[in-house]
Design a protein that fits this description.
The chain is an alpha/beta fold. Helix content is about 35%, strand content about 20%. The chain contains nine helices and ten strands. A six-stranded mixed beta sheet has the order 6-7-8-3-9-10, sandwiched between helices. A hairpin with an 8-residue loop joins strand 1 and strand 2. Helix 4 packs across helix 5 and helix 7 packs across helix 9.
Length: about 270
């Protein structure tokens, strides 16, 4: 069952040291992902997108405000909220086989269920296109295949909320498109709540129901956009839809202008 995850007037300030002033990552952000919604967050580099996601995962606490999961404040990593890291290769255990990496989230289950759970994990690998690779090691796989292992492991954890931190940024363009389609198919099948942080505007439009656009520092929430494109989505037909192109132009223009309306500097 998916869950509702929200940010209630959240601010994050990193204290300076010595002569360094305090650093405001973002200020007074209120945003919510509804159950089973796919929400994307885009913004300029350094605006705090990943920091926002780490707070959603309970890995960091806000300076002001609170992160709320189904009405409960998030003060530590909550069960059912799974974080899919950008550096997927570092999140896999090189000394474990692919199937044993996927089994990691369920290792505390009773021994009587191990056979059943191992069969489920093999099915997750099949779902992400890695059937037959169970006994390989991560270092024997390509980058795209390693990320598929990380996705299968996230599925094994039975996520109610899946947090995706630029999960496809380290792979080539074609693999990126394949992984986007894979995640979308899994989301449509499992109906978990998904929050994606990305710098890729087209990726955000292709995947999301809504897109939150953050401004440059001092970071604030500039706009939340309903995508409104029909599902299921196709990598080619969807991207050629005039509504897709109009959204891309609008979001890109918004990102290229600073909070004061002027073109942001690089």
């Amino acid at each position: 069952m998916s869950q509702r995850l929200g940010f209630d007037r959240v601010s994050k300030i990193f204290e300076g040291t010595g002569d360094d002033a305090d650093f405001v990552a973002f200020d007074d952000i209120t945003l919510e992902a509804a159950p089973s919604e796919f929400l994307a967050v885009v913004g300029p580099s350094g605006c705090g997108k990943s920091t926002l996601l780490r707070m959603a995962a309970g890995l960091m606490v806000p300076t002001r405000g609170q992160v709320v999961l189904d009405g409960r404040p998030v003060v530590e990593p909550p069960p059912g909220v799974i974080y899919l890291f950008q550096q997927y290769a570092k999140s896999l255990f090189a000394w474990r086989t692919v199937i044993d990496n996927v089994m990691f989230p369920v290792e505390s289950a009773p021994r009587a269920r191990r056979g059943e759970l191992r069969a489920q994990c093999r099915d997750y690998l099949r779902q992400v296109g890695l059937g037959g690779f169970e006994d390989k090691y991560p270092w024997q796989l390509s980058g795209g295949m390693q990320q598929r292992v990380a996705i299968a492991r996230a599925l094994a954890a039975d996520p109610q909320v899946l947090l995706l931190d630029e999960p496809f940024s380290a792979v080539d363009a074609l693999t990126r498109m394949e992984l986007q389609t894979l995640v979308l198919q899994l989301w449509e099948r499992r109906k978990f709540t998904a929050i994606l942080v990305t710098h890729d505007v087209e990726e955000a439009i292709f995947l999301a129901d809504r897109i939150a656009v953050l401004g440059a520092r001092p970071t604030s929430l500039r706009e939340v956009i309903d995508v409104g494109l029909p599902r299921p989505r196709d990598q080619f037909a969807t991207r050629e839809d005039p509504r897709f192109l109009k959204l891309r132009h609008h979001i890109t223009t918004t990102l290229l202008t600073g909070n004061d309306g002027h073109v942001a500097s690089a």
